[in-house]
UniProtKB/TrEMBL annotation:
This is S-protein homolog. InterPro entries: Self-incomp_S1. It holds the Pfam family Self-incomp_S1. The keyword tRNA processing does not apply. It comes from Linum tenue. GO terms for biological process: rejection of self pollen. Belongs to the plant self-incompatibility (S1) protein family. It is found in: Secreted. Keywords: Secreted, Self-incompatibility, Signal. Signal peptide: none annotated. The keyword Membrane does not apply. GO terms for cellular component: extracellular region.
Length: 95
């Protein structure tokens, strides 16, 4: 089971357990000050990673995909995929 925990300065979306093939999504209204930022932490077995899932200046990344070697983003318009963050090994319960 993949554990996903996303949050911003003002909102904690909570931890969610996802099985293979499941997805997690949310919606929000960006700050009128242009300061919206969400980051996510992922954990599975003895691996974890964290990455910025959304920030106001990046209007292109729409989807994030988890793979064996880390997390990838997919852009909205160019439909291009890029590598964002690698997994790192951790002790059990370090997440």
């Amino acid at each position: 089971m993949l554990m996903v925990h996303c949050r911003s300065k003002d909102d904690d979306l909570g931890a969610h357990g996802l099985a293979v093939g499941e997805s997690f999504e949310w919606s929000f209204d960006p700050s009128w000050l242009g300061e919206t930022l969400f980051w996510c932490s992922l954990a599975v077995e003895d691996k974890c990673l964290s990455f910025v899932a959304y920030y106001e200046g990046d209007m292109y990344t729409e989807y994030w995909y988890v793979h064996d070697d880390g997390v990838y983003g997919q852009t909205r318009h160019a439909n291009a995929t890029f590598y964002e963050a690698p997994w790192r090994r951790v002790s059990p319960r370090q997440y």
